[in-house]
Amino acid sequence: MMNVQTLVSSVFSLDKSDMRASLNEIGKQCMQAFEDAGSVAIPKEFRRHTAVLVVGMGGSALGADFVRNLYGDMLKRPIKISMDYTTPKWVSQDTLVILSSYSGDTEETLAQAHSILERTSKVVALTCGGALLEWCKKNNKPVYVINPMHNPCGVPR
After folding, report:
1. Can you give the pLDDT at residue 5?
2. What are the two backbone dihedrals, phi and then psi, of residue 30, each rounded to the nearest 5 degrees?
3. How far apart are CA 36 and CA 30, in angstroms?
4. Backbone angles phi, psi at 97, to 5 degrees
5. Average pLDDT over residues 105-127
6. What's this model's pTM, rounded to 2 decimal places?
7. Which residues have CB under 8 Å from 5's CB, separation 6+?
């Protein structure tokens, strides 16, 4: 029978990307994001929307999934998540779209970014950089650039 110390060591040895260190820093990540997000200028007209679409894969959609599941019944507008290459047909000028890609190079998110402006101008992004950051600069869209200082594993969780 394995003792607790051996079991813990065994589990930690499987954590090749050091996810544990990132989890230990989650409080600092949240504080930093809260402080930094205030510097992103979101146009006032973006507040007038009937729904929110978050475009992101895996961990890049995790925050939206968390908010939707925790506060779903209290939200005034629905939050939908798209993990696809194509934008849902219901998206219109009344939809706020949040493009989320930690790396900034997620294929599905970039595919929707390239077509989303045909449906709505209310687009913001979350990323560490990559092609999504360049798309935001080119299209003059608000972007929160994630500082990964408190995320040693380097993946969105």
Report:
1. 77
2. -65, -45
3. 10
4. -110, 130
5. 96
6. 0.88
7. none
